[in-house]
Design a protein that fits this description.
The chain is α+β, with helices and mostly antiparallel strands and about 90 residues long. It has a single domain (about 1-90), classed as GIY-YIG endonuclease. About 40% of the residues lie in helices and about 20% in strands. The protein is globular, with a radius of gyration of 12 Å.
Length: about 90
């Protein structure tokens, strides 16, 4: 299984879109921030949206598509499934 996910720094704050095959591990890595990068620099650690795909190529295409969207469309996508911008990380099976 492959996951496209969106992290946020806060409600309607800075967003980060990526793809992974291990969502819980990858979000944990973002939270611990051992590697310098965008998410560490901007404090983007809240998992606000994710979707799963069986095919890696489809997941990558979806990630690239979402990255091209304007912020308002990303906000609408997040809020359709997570209107309160809750941290979904706690709902993942670790």
């Amino acid at each position: 299984m492959y996951y496209v996910y969106i992290l946020a720094s806060r409600y309607r704050g800075t967003l980060y879109v990526d793809v992974t095959n291990d969502l819980a591990r990858r979000i944990y890595e973002h939270r611990m921030g051992p590697v310098d990068g965008f998410t560490k620099k901007y404090g983007v650690k809240v998992l606000v949206y994710f979707e799963s795909h069986a095919d890696v190529e489809m997941a990558i295409r979806r990630e690239k598509l979402i990255k091209k969207w304007r912020r308002v469309m990303k906000f609408e996508t997040i809020e359709a499934l997570n209107p309160e911008w809750l941290d979904l990380y706690e709902t993942l099976n670790h």
